[in-house]
Amino acid sequence: MTVQVAVVGGTGYGGLELIRLLHMHPYVELTSVISHSESGEDLHHIYPHTKNVVEVNLDEWNIEETLEEVDYVFFSLPSGISQKYVAQARELGKNCIDLSGDFRLKQAQLYEDWYKNTPANEKDLEEAVYGLPEKNRANIEKSSLVANPGCYPTAALLGLLPMAEIEGVDPSSVIIDGKTGVSGAGKSLTLATHFTESNENVKPYKVGKHQHIPEIEQLLEEQFAKEVNITFTPHLTPMTRGILCTMYVQLHNEVTAEELIDHYRSFYESDSFVRVRDAGSVPGTKDVYSSNFCDIAIDVDSRTNRVTIVSAIDNLVKGASGQAIQNLNIMNGWDERTGLWTLPMYP
Amino acid sequence: MTVQVAVVGGTGYGGLELIRLLHMHPYVELTSVISHSESGEDLHHIYPHTKNVVEVNLDEWNIEETLEEVDYVFFSLPSGISQKYVAQARELGKNCIDLSGDFRLKQAQLYEDWYKNTPANEKDLEEAVYGLPEKNRANIEKSSLVANPGCYPTAALLGLLPMAEIEGVDPSSVIIDGKTGVSGAGKSLTLATHFTESNENVKPYKVGKHQHIPEIEQLLEEQFAKEVNITFTPHLTPMTRGILCTMYVQLHNEVTAEELIDHYRSFYESDSFVRVRDAGSVPGTKDVYSSNFCDIAIDVDSRTNRVTIVSAIDNLVKGASGQAIQNLNIMNGWDERTGLWTLPMYP
Amino acid sequence: MTVQVAVVGGTGYGGLELIRLLHMHPYVELTSVISHSESGEDLHHIYPHTKNVVEVNLDEWNIEETLEEVDYVFFSLPSGISQKYVAQARELGKNCIDLSGDFRLKQAQLYEDWYKNTPANEKDLEEAVYGLPEKNRANIEKSSLVANPGCYPTAALLGLLPMAEIEGVDPSSVIIDGKTGVSGAGKSLTLATHFTESNENVKPYKVGKHQHIPEIEQLLEEQFAKEVNITFTPHLTPMTRGILCTMYVQLHNEVTAEELIDHYRSFYESDSFVRVRDAGSVPGTKDVYSSNFCDIAIDVDSRTNRVTIVSAIDNLVKGASGQAIQNLNIMNGWDERTGLWTLPMYP
Amino acid sequence: MTVQVAVVGGTGYGGLELIRLLHMHPYVELTSVISHSESGEDLHHIYPHTKNVVEVNLDEWNIEETLEEVDYVFFSLPSGISQKYVAQARELGKNCIDLSGDFRLKQAQLYEDWYKNTPANEKDLEEAVYGLPEKNRANIEKSSLVANPGCYPTAALLGLLPMAEIEGVDPSSVIIDGKTGVSGAGKSLTLATHFTESNENVKPYKVGKHQHIPEIEQLLEEQFAKEVNITFTPHLTPMTRGILCTMYVQLHNEVTAEELIDHYRSFYESDSFVRVRDAGSVPGTKDVYSSNFCDIAIDVDSRTNRVTIVSAIDNLVKGASGQAIQNLNIMNGWDERTGLWTLPMYP
């Protein structure tokens, strides 16, 4: 039951992580890795660590030839660019999993406002399914275009979705304080991600302006069935991988941490990759390092009647490439843990 | 106009930073460094980096002999232990600056609840002045016992105090998300501060239970003149130094970031160590590294009508030893920048 | 063709990495994890990151009961302690792979001198096979007691063994400058491995005194068939994983880097996990992160007629647990890549 | 006795560190900071951490106007570019301290070979004094053009110079294994210094090809009075600051570590910034962090009759800007510790 797979944008960190994870997948044959900037090169010339394990020559984007035999195409390209290639692939009937932000926002206007870019075409936008399996598994299964969620939205939403069923919770009270490892900023060279600038430094960025805000709000609006405006502050922290979201929600009724934990556990009963901690135990990003897990802790502060929710993922795995493969598994009707059921690397 | 100074607890990180900073102070003679655990040793045997620069033999605590000539005593001891030594020193009429939590909380009961320890004696507690110069300069000037603020409270309060004059702000809406470097946990060996556990890891701790909560609330209550309950979540981040507090406050009237920035700047007009950023500019902890500065940024999110305040300090300087020396300067009527007016080390 | 396996010392970093890697092994059933200090606990209580993936209750060492069904036992215990448990397991006929230093040195006196400990019993010492597959594959295949090599010796020897066939090379000219990540020091709390002490710090330790010196010399003596005395300086560097050995060898004849590279490649022709770089390309530890690879670079300095050899491994994988599993594969006649053929995690 | 000083190239890391250190210097007035790329800007717009402390507007290079009042000019420019500006300043009679590699190598041919650049003019080259105070103090005192040493050469030479008086030592047996923090690579963005690439990575670079090789050899040739060819391998390590050189020298007579330590101490008797450790004690880079010290340890391996010398500096201080100020002090006849006599920052 092998499928043929291509990765477009294979030399960025998302594409590279796809290659690492797909190599462990028993039902996948990686047929082609496409890189505009490095086409013609052997992958191991750019990334010597791939030598002997994954030997591919980087292809140019030549949709008819390169993708002829391919069943599924992963797109790991910058937002604004991805949509054009996806559109071409879909015309040829390919199943697409897109890791950019191009197909996540259903309202074209929101995309324009937050991404400062032209939105994807209407048809694709409409057909795209938001690829958060814990929310959309049934739709993903039938989809041929999955919009893989952003890294922060994955961590945030998995921590917040179950709150919709708690009486009296106003989703607009949600405040999300996000901390990311530097790989989240990608491979492009910037002063902020120069080692000497980000080492020994914790620094907020895009305060109140991050393009993941409307993505989180869109999903919360679906879940809570009302308009939502949240506050979100991302921070760059001196580590390579990992996202931790600390989230604050105002309660209006009395509820204990234990009750919420029980509720979260039953909410995620069928979700292998979400693990809810016992009361008093809190995950760090290292607890999910290199894995597809999202670990969640919940604390209720009775003094302020606020819930503090902590959610940890590996930004390159559950926050990007691992989740994309989880979606591939679902689209194919395979156990969604296939190829992803590894222990986090610790330490 | 030299004063004679002793440091009690000189081999912890707070004491060590005192020694580093006092060495640069033109009016201070460091007469004695006291260390219970290492008395009799030369400081450079424990810390070879001090060789030739600060040559002292570690003294035992022997108040009458060791402190005979001393005018000011810095105590850098664990909470619960410090109070006893301070009490003895005060009986001999010494001026004391205490870096522990023992004299910060005015209500003995709060100390018992949060520190799980016996509070200091009533008289000392009553006479102790909370050593945040930007709030209490006049009282510090006349005080003989300064309770040096905690690291998180310093960053948090400097970011929050000016909000008391903004109409309609409820201090109980305050949420503080703190990130600290590992030196904040001190020199004691713990699994959480073992390199392999804290490297490549961002992890919350003491969620809703940190002993700095009542300290922050006490000062906010004074400033806002009403009861205050805040939410505070500290996080351990993989760096040696630095604290960044990201703070969220609900607004009830319309106010712009520019207006708030103006207000903060006039609020801190006479405070050399507080620097308020222009709109759109945000500090990281590296911007204050090794210095006594507190850099503050303010952003208003008109979508949610919330203010996001970012405050960055070096936890060992403005968050501990630097502020203690600032207090020494004030107690002596010196320019409070004396010995502290250095550029942050960057990178 | 499944074998039943036990890990003794499962809560140290070596044991933990064994559990991570064994979980990916298709022919292994992990029957028991033994921990003296934590017996009775669920593994996920100590290591929450293992939750749901590897669910085991930690056993006490009770050889007859615990190991009854087990075919292979991995020992990840401190040197000096391991030998006693191994002896017991061998009396019951178990196949043993020992990760400590107890069975590596053939001369009991050397063990006493460098480990300051009583050596293992003569019979075990004699029967133990040094588990460096690239040198000893045939013997490992027939062995029932494998002494898994040390982390530094693995990196050093793979870089040096092929030099024995280069004419005129005196192995006593070898100088090894080793750099390790902090996980090499294990999970025990020490000041040197406290985050604040090892972060932003590169520091040599055990200069000329490291217990891996006689291990490296013993193997070089076998390979070069002469007495060998080398110089070795290990350094602690601020990262979690990785060992890089930079090695210097005096040449006496003219030889080019290209010739040496050709020679190394043919030397390692059948060794899947050794990758020799093209001239001018040099590995960093990140190139082998999380994997069982050893990447090697060779440079000839014609000005000094010295060879510089660089060898990089992940200290916990090829330097410990990965190599132990490679040995398990060989002992069972399986492809030695089984369960280990993963891409290094990058970045 | 104040002198007026300008810094040319003030926005690179070397220039920035000059500004930090000069600010603490009691006899220096920083009159002008010159930056080609950022002229017209306030320094704090580029580096907000300088706000309020050092308020300067960046000047363009306009030698007659900008330098009119200036007595001493520090050049912190790339090699190949610096020479032209220095030549101009010298024509106007300015005293110059150059931090580039342009005036270090006395033989123009060597400069061409290793820097792949046109050498400086003959007269300047001839008059330039190599600014290693511990070797050249007397010449520096009389000089008007100081070639400030490279970071690696500073650490290496201070560790090696005293060996010239040890009988039977051949300087061509010297092997230097260098480890640097990433700030040594400067502020230019490169993939190798991107956080995600250098974090959790130790990696050699320019193996046998680093331009500091001829600089080290030139000075060793002077000291040993014979031709010298050394081996040098630099490594990038995941920290911001610090250089550690581990050096290996073959002995031909018997000598103990204690004897060498005594010799080193008497060799450096008048050198405040060199500290030689007791036998058995070894410095890490953290022991000299932020300071102008060079800490040295010496070990003799009687098994191989080799000396291992460890030398640690802060690459931006003793390895660059601190040493430049030490040279300024010497040129002015001031105590060379002036403005530099601070405790290393620890932790």
CATH architectural grouping of the largest domain in chain A? 2-Layer Sandwich
The biggest chain-chain interface is: A-B, 46 and 46 residues
Weakly predicted, low-confidence segments of chain A: none
CATH fold assignment of the largest domain in chain A = Dihydrodipicolinate Reductase, domain 2
* Helical residues, percent of chain A: 25-40%
Mean pLDDT of chain A: 97
Percentage beta strand of chain A = 15-25%
Q: Which structural category do the helix and sheet elements of chain A fall into? A: alpha/beta
Quaternary structure classification: homotetramer
Head-to-tail CA distance between termini of chain A: 35 Å
**Assigned CATH superfamily of the largest domain in chain A:** Dihydrodipicolinate Reductase, domain 2
Largest sheet of chain A: 7 strands, parallel
Strand order of the largest sheet of chain A: 3-2-1-4-5-7-6
Overall geometric form of chain A = globular
Please report the first level of CATH classification, the CATH class of the largest domain in chain A. Alpha Beta
Instruction: Give the beta-strand count of chain A.
Output: 14
Keywords (chains A, B, C, D): Amino-acid biosynthesis, Arginine biosynthesis, Cytoplasm, NADP, Oxidoreductase
Domain Semialdehyde dehydrogenase NAD-binding (chains A, B, C, D): 4-143
Organism (chains A, B, C, D): Texcoconibacillus texcoconensis
Active site (chains A, B, C, D): 151
